[in-house]
Amino acid sequence: MTKHGRATSLLWHTALKSGLTGNRNEAEDLVLRWLREVLPEGVKVTVLADHGFGDVELFELLNAELGFDFVIRFRECIHVEDAKGVVRTAAEWVPRSGRATALKNATVTARRYGLTAVAVVKAPGMKDAWCLATSFAASAAELVKLYGRRLSMERASAMPRTGDSVRACPPLV
């Protein structure tokens, strides 16, 4: 995201869908490592990603290896443990009021991977709840707003599909 708040795709990898079978995570990790290589030292990166990307291995790669911040949606069936040791599915943490809630110093999955926070919300009009894993120390409302910016990026970078492949414009680096 730029300083004025617009989310913009900087890099992407074009691949045959048939070639990604069993290799999708490796292809995603390749692009993230490539991004780290091409960015000047000191540039802060925030990865906004949908629930297809929500796994502990990605959180570890982003945080420990690449030094990227993230707000990544994950599935409602994932177990979340709050700082007091209470374990529930993410769906069970979603308040009925429609207001966003943050669980600071939460862990996720059976591996109990530690996160700065987990934010959950199902506002009126939302089809599904947003369960967000993050490396940010921010309010639940701030995290939901930040994650919501992902939608502007998806619309702006919509790529035409041709057959079994995806065509992409040159990266904006």
Descriptive report:
27% of the residues lie in helices and 21% in strands. With 173 residues, the chain is an alpha+beta fold. The strands form three sheets. The chain has a five-stranded mixed β-sheet with strand order 1-2-9-8-5, sandwiched between helices. A four-stranded antiparallel β-sheet has the order 4-3-6-7. Strand 8 (117-121) and strand 9 (130-134) form a beta hairpin. The chain is globular. The model is unreliable at 159-173 (pLDDT under 50).
Question: What ranges have pLDDT less than 50 throughout 5 or more consecutive residues?
Answer: 159-173
Report the structural category. alpha+beta
Using the alpha-carbon principal axes, give the shape: globular
Series of H and E elements: HEHEEEHEEEEEHHEE
Overall number of strands: 11
Fraction in beta strands: 15-25%
Could you report the average pLDDT, rounded to the nearest whole number?
84
Task: Specify Rg, calculated over alpha carbons.
Answer: 17 Å
Q: Which strands sit side by side, in order, in the main sheet?
A: 1-2-9-8-5
Report the sheet with the most strands, covering strand number, pairing sense and barrel closure. Answer: 5 strands, mixed
